[in-house]
Amino acid sequence: xxxxxxxxxxxxLEEIETDIGIPxxxxxxxxxxxxxxxxxxxxSFMEGEGIVACDTRTYHRIKIKSPSYLIIHxxxxxxxxxxxxxxxxLSIWLQGEQQEYLNYxxxxxxxxxxIEKRIEESIIPQLINEFTKLFSSxxxxxxxxxxxxxxxxxxxxxxxxxxxxxxxxxxxxxINWNQLDNEHKCTAVRNILRQRNIDNTRKFIFExxxxxxxxx
Length: 216
What we know:
The chain is mostly helical. 50% of the residues lie in helices and 7% in strands. The chain has nine helices and four strands; from the N terminus they run ββαββαααααααα. The chain has helices at residues 33-41, 67-76, 82-95, 98-104, 109-134, 139-149, 160-171, 182-193, 207-213, and strands at residues 7-9, 14-16, 50-54, 61-65. The strands form two sheets. A two-stranded antiparallel ribbon has the order 1-2. A two-stranded antiparallel sheet has the order 3-4. β1 (7-9) and β2 form a beta hairpin. It is elongated and about 70 Å long.
């Protein structure tokens, strides 16, 4: 179908708002770029690949693609590559929307299930056990234990486990970790593993860490 994206006055080369009788794409009114990004981050891959954001004063445009679409694109282009298939399945787990994706890509179910099992039945329980040994309701005691067992290397990529334990402690201050049931502990660790990078919400903080652990 043909859509009217814009009209330019060829005498001034300026874009102008006009109706030429051809349908225009669906549009949204956002006042800030962050609002555009937030909207796109919530899009399902079935809604499209993203949006084109246009500054109504300058008519400068940028394309913003949704993480959901990028995962599908990443996983289905050249998916014959075994490593890429594994990365695709890990991305689905990080999104926490496996049912939606696997309904459309059933050929990845077996490998996804293997990766999910590795994370849920091995990696998460191991992190829980290690954190439980470090845990103390006293902040100083906890960090003394953490520094002893996982001293900082000064290199973020090498300190991912230390960061996971720090986040777990911060999020459970005032709570007796040892009295929580296993389901609550698993949920706490799972939520942290799925956290996005604050500076780039398209990326997950612990994706590389998990990538190495499950040997994709």
